[in-house]
Amino acid sequence: MKRPTISSSLHYLKISDCRLLLGFDPTYSGCRRYLSGRASLVGSTNTRPFPDYSPKKSAIKDSEFVRQISKTIKLRRSEPLRHILKPYESKFRPDHLIWVLMDIKNDYELVLDFFNWARLRRDPTLEALCIVVHIAVASKDLKMAHSLVHDFWAKPNLDVDHSFANFTERLIYTYKDWGSDPHVFDIFFQVLVEGGMLLEARQLFDKLLNYGLLVSVDSCNLFLARLSNNFDGIRMALKVFNDYPGVGVPWNTTSYNVILHCLCQLGMIKEAHLLLIQMEFKGHMPDIVSYSTIISGYCQIGQLEKVVKLVEELQRKGIKPNEYTYNDVILLLRKTGKVVEPDKILWEMRNQGIYPDHVIYTTIISGFCKSGNISAAYKFFNEMQGKKIIPDFVTYTAMIHGFCQNGKMAEAQDFFSQMLSKGLEVDEVTYTELIDGYCKAGEIKEAFSLHNQMVQKGLTPNIFTYTALVDGLCKRGEVDVANELLHEISAKGLQPNVCTYNAFINGLCKIGNIEQALKLMEEMELAEIYPDTVTYTTLMDAYCKIGEMAKAHKLLRKMLDKGLQPTVVTFNVLMNGFCLSGMLEDGERLIQWMLDKGITPNATTFNSLMKQYCIRNDMRAATNVFRSMHAEGVAADGNTYNILVRGHCKARNMKEAWFLHRGMIEKGFDLTASSYNAIIKGFFKRKKFVEARQFFDEMRAKGLVAEKEIYDIFIDVNYEEGNLEITLELCDEAMENCLVGKLQQERT
Question: Residue 370 domain-assigned?
Fold first, then answer.
């Protein structure tokens, strides 16, 4: 295996995370699996013997005093020691403790009682403490031994006599005559590791080798995990992993899992995968943690094919994926836009006897919400509740985000009200999501009302909250008002960020003031707030919309020169520009160029091209784009289906429109009002009156507004059929939706 190199980008790994990841309790279980006592070690053939214990000899007077104490506590052991030893307290010295322990060492309960009585009066000597630790280990009370050593090292301001060297020396000095059980050193090693004394732990390991002892593999695993807390530690962990087998440490699957996780944290996924393969050749069978670690690593870098193969491999080996594995896969599917797959994953999980919890459901719901498929998200939200899995504030916030992104502010407000009624935590994030939604919907009054509400509740709006408000004002063309708000933000000590400036640049572009937007971008750089990909993409979009493709390309080159990577949104802006300029062949070449460069287009990229072909009534070309989209593994969204449905209706291909309609409903997407209008007109022109009426009724039931032409058609049909009540109802509805609604829009 290629020797790993350390990456400069490091995600820290906490010891508590490692314990959870590895599924073992290193504090005590490691001692129960001690691998080697006195062993012949590689590189340690000349081991030294442990020293003989030779304590200070007691005087005759002390011997009598100790005999009296021993006799008293043995005969009256049922009585509290604080009562029966009261006569001896004034003359009791630290040396007496050790001499009494010599007499009662075979009675473990009595040893503990007497030691506790003694240390309540004064701190015991290091020698006495080490003796009791040895006795506890010999009595198989590893928990007590661990507690005694831990409590000692947890004391603040230890003096020189209580140093690591002195403690180690005393523990070795008392070893031979007070226990001779190597578990005691395992416990000491663990306490050092848990306390972050990693250098001392390494020194103890090396010192024990001189006496022919090895620390247990579980304790070494704890050492590896704790080393992984920082950059230098990971470098040491890799060295330890390579070096320790040379002195006899037999690494196990858990050891490999720690290193696999470290490599993945460093972004060295391929190296980690190679190590996974090597495990089996070295006789260590990978477990679910091993596979989940590599799967998680590949998920983070978007390698779906690798993930699928690994999942298949672990299933072939009879290893059941756990909820963490599935959660990672769901997150990856969400990132790649393949949001339909969670249905299959949940079904497979249940077959494996794993029942999704609220984290899995929230991940799925969040994925659908971010992809714009709020209907599918709502379906899983209801399924979650139907299975008595209680949504938390994160779930509700995800749903609110989804509704806001789709402009469904009534539903978002309803979920917000549910959160309040259920007593769920509503924080700045939730408020900001709702404020941003209202701003995007152009409902600035409601947004500022929520801002005031959150302040009254003692929540502090942050720069993201104010950026949402600035963005809302700019989208309405109220750039001057947004500028006043910016001054208020600065007066409150909040520093506008690149997103705030991007909102202003977008506002200036909306009102056609591209020159001022370019000047503002220069001001950003002077303020050391550097334009990002969004800044350049916004300006490129403005040029594309007015047909200035050359200027858009010039900005793209400038952006690339600054080392900024264009996103799929940047390419979508260019695609939209090509389409608006009638340059559809250039649009198709752009998609091919993206694919050649390994940049995956999204649904929006293809939608722009399909829309223009539909406008040109070239449904063959539009269908070809749709097929190539599917061939590249890009999931169609609701807009894709609505574009094609309207296109086929316009071309009077009602069978294709009906087929697409069925497909989109199965995938959880809804027809828009314009698509309903197109289908109704299409069926009516083909004299499919039953189908036209069915879609009209469905449209009205969903609260969508039909065009005046559609109302006129069904008003005439119902009048001719003698349905006067329905005719009058439709007349009122048409007046309300088509006339009154139009007047209200003109006023606003």
Answer: no
